[in-house]
Amino acid sequence: MRIFKGKRFTIYQLNSGKFALDGGAMFGVVPKALWSRLIPPDDLNRIPMATHPLLVETEKGWVLIEAGLGTGWDEKFKKIYDVTEEDPFADAPVGRDEVALVIQTHLHFDHAGELATPEGEFRYKAPVVVQAMEWADALYPHERSRASYPERRIRALEDHVRPVSGSGEVWPGIYVHRTGGHTRGHQIVVIRDEDRLFVFTGDLLPTRHHAPLPYVMAYDLFPEDMLFARKYWYDLFLRERAILFTPHDRAPFAGEMYVDEKGKHRLREIQPDGD
Ligand SMILES: [Zn+2]
């Protein structure tokens, strides 16, 4: 767990499981000759990843930005995705019951699996903010998205989802914005501190290595929408010098965006205030 201290908010970056996905699928049209230098793949062409939710301390209570991969996966699943399970609350300052609101960028298993047990038991007392479109797509997946939405864990959310549409302030100082791209209902989460923006990027920026505009995943259902969403949000990230939290770097990452001498977007790492 790592700590970032703002003026209004304190952010705890948690560890909710390690896993691995196909490197080619993670980097879309980028040739392996390029991406394999950034993250070397294993002998099954998988690259090491992880899930890092944010637990945010606010004046009004605790907000969890994503739950992550979580625990309780079966052996076959663990083998395919090279899973190492981690309990995100093992070293957290509060327990699940103290969380007052959960915000999900979307409901794929690597972002939302931890919300429920494999048997389909919801593990929190808080409502789960997600875009209405994402909720519909998770409940009624199609052939290409089905593997990302484990049915029992999704059904467990049924009485707990608080669907939203578009953009809005869902907690004092905490905003969601639908980006589309990865899924139709994918959203990012923006925390407005007094003089700084903290952003949980979700799969708009899955890892620190995905910053260049064309580094869009083959997993994205609408890759062109993702490109346009990036162009829009990158402008704001640069202008506001936002502190960006990526979900999937193997080692937890926070950074600031900049444009290098070749005009390529990149992320510069920011160190936490404590751990
Ligand atoms: Zn993801």
Give an overview in words.
This protein has 275 residues and is of the alpha+beta class. The chain has one domain (2-269): Metallo-beta-lactamase, Chain A. The chain is 19% helix and 27% strand. It is built from seven helices and 16 strands. The strands form three sheets. The chain has a seven-stranded mixed sheet with strand order 1-2-5-6-7-8-9. Strands 10-11-12-13-14-15-16 form a seven-stranded mixed sheet. The chain has a two-stranded antiparallel sheet with strand order 3-4. The longest helix is centred in the C-terminal third of the chain and has 18 residues, at 223-240. The model has no long low-confidence stretch (mean pLDDT 97). Bound molecules: zinc ion. The site of zinc ion has 7 residues, from helix 4.
How would you concisely characterize the structure shown here?
With 275 residues, the protein is an alpha+beta fold.
Rounded average pLDDT: 97
The CATH class, by name, is: Alpha Beta
Largest sheet: 7 strands, mixed
From the helix content, strand content and strand pairing, which structural class follows? alpha+beta
Compute the gyration radius: what is it? 17 Å
Q: Indicate how many domains the architecture comprises.
A: 1
Question: CATH fold name, please?
Answer: Metallo-beta-lactamase, Chain A
Strand order of the largest sheet: 1-2-5-6-7-8-9
Bound molecules: zinc ion
State the distance separating the first and last CA atoms. Answer: 6 Å
